[in-house]
Amino acid sequence: MRHDKSKRKSEWISASDVGRSEFCPNSVALKYAGAKPSRRAVAAQDRGNLKHEQFNRQISTDKRCYVASYLYGMEDQRTETLRQFRDNTLDYMPGGRILIAVYYRLSPMVIEISKRSSWIDLLLRRIVDRLVLWVELRGKSHDS
Amino acid sequence: MIHELLIFIAVVAVLVIVWRRRRNSLVDELGIEGDLIWIDDGRHTKPFFNGAFKVFGKPDALYRTRTGVLSVEYKSRNGPVFESDVTQAFCAALAARGDGYRVNQVLIKTSAIQEVFKLPSSDKALFDRIQPAVVHARQAKFGHAVPSRPELKKCRSCGFRGDCDDSAA
Hints:
The complex is a heterodimer of chains A (about 140) and B (about 170). With about 140 residues, chain A is mainly α.
């Protein structure tokens, strides 16, 4: 088996190697000696990664997904605009952090209500659309 | 005026009911009452480093709770929490402490169960708890002889059993 010496220079050790070492130190030695994991193990790892992603999505939407993400999606430009407004402007304003905290507290409830009522959903969308427009105009006026 | 007041009270009551339901569902999900402050979003999320103990790692999530910071380690398998899970989670918590998160609890969740562990308050005491595994991992990394722990169940689940002379499977 080929020993990969470049990986061995540093004393830094990962938490997953430490956990694996508790499981069986020899498995860590085999890994660093260049042993290839079995196809079954690789498939199990892939399944695990997928479940991890699902788990992360589950907890992040439970707690982090705020109104804009709900309305437009996590990757939408409008969501990003509001995210930047939160991080670059609101966060530095007096009372801004309190406002953000209140917003995070209330947003799951607002989303829940919005899901159940189409007219509240529409109202919410209009309000947030206007907010996005205001933030964009504000950004443009600051740039010029 | 009375009508408006009644409508207002009704709306507030509905909001409180929905909020409580939502809150309970969040607590039920992981049993955590706290704010999510960090999450491992995959390969592009950098791990935490603890220079004092030369360990690095990523928990799956960090929550700020009333008492401190709780680290979450998720295992996708449908089984119990093993000692190796605890050691890995403790090591990741130690790494997170190196980056300023004062982790005082660890939650390990499998598809079947979840367990919460309290951590020692000092980093040294936390390191002492995982030190034997860290020493073995470093020895293994540097190519020194390390022990095997062959057990039928363990070896069956090990991805390197094909290359292991001590395999019990």
